[in-house]
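User: Please run a holo structure prediction.
Assistant: Happy to. Please share the sequence and the ligand.
User: Here you go; the ligand is cobalt (II) ion.
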Amino acid sequence: MITIKSDREIELMRNAGKLAGLCLTEMGKLVKAGATPLELDQACREWTARHEAIPAPLNYKGFPSSLCVSVNDVVCHGIPDNRPFQNGDIVNLDVTPILNGYHGDTNATFFVGEVPEKVQQFVETARESMWAGIRQVRPGNTVGDIGHAIDTLVRARGYSVVLEYCGHGIGRNFHEDPVIIHVGRPKHGVILKAGMTFTIEPMINMGKAKTVLDEEDGWTARTADGSLSAQFEHTVLVTPTGVEVLTLRPGEKIPEPK
Ligand code: MF3
Ligand code: CO
Ligand code: CO
C-alpha cells in the first residue's frame, strides 16, 4: 500500500528530512584518515539524541549501529567497526533520523584524503545518476522512468547498477511501498502521484553488478568481483508540479542537467 502524505505529514517529513541532511553533513566532517567507523557510530548516536531524534538503523531488524558505514567494495549496510579509514578510501555514510515519528533517509560517498581521478569520476557518476533519477519525479511519470534514467547514465560510463538493493517509500515507516528499483523501462511500473514520499539511492559498481552478502554478520553487502561501489541517497516528495528534495544539505542545490 502506497501512502499519500497529508499536508501535516509533509511538514513532518520536511523536518525529518532537513535533520537527516544536517546529520549527514556533520558526520561527513568526521571522515578522515585514522578515524574509525565506530567513532562515527558514537558521534551519530549522540548527535541524533541531542536533536531530539532517534537513529532508525539502531536495532532495525537487529542492525547493531546508528548509521551504515560502507567502505570501498562494500555496497551498503556496512556495520561500523574499528578499522581506521585510510588515504584513498571511499566511504558511504547512510543516516536516518526519526523525528516526531517520521523518517528522513539520506546518504553520500565521501573521500578520505587523495583519491585517484578515475575513482573521483566514478563517485561523481553515482551522484549524477541519483540526480538523473530525481529529475524524473513528477506526477504521471513512473518508477520505470526513474530507473531507466539512472541505468542509462551509469551504463554509458561503463559502470553497473546494483539490482539487489532499492529505494523505498518512507514516512512513519523506514521502508514502505513503493519499491524504487534503479533500472527500468520508461512508462512502466507504479505511476507517481503528488504526496508520495520515497528515496532514490542508486548503488553503482565500477565492475560487475553482482553483490554478495557477508554470511557472518548477515548485513554487509559487497561487490562480488571486489570492485569499488558508490552510492548517494535523497528522500523526495512528489509535488503537484514536480519534486521537492526533503534531505538537501545546507548549501546543496539540485544541479542543472549536463
Ligand atoms: N538507510 C538504509 C536505506 O537507505 C537502510 C539501512 S537498514 C539498516 O534504506 F538496518 F542497515 F540500517
Ligand atoms: Co533508504
Ligand atoms: Co539510507
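The longest strand covers residues 90-95.
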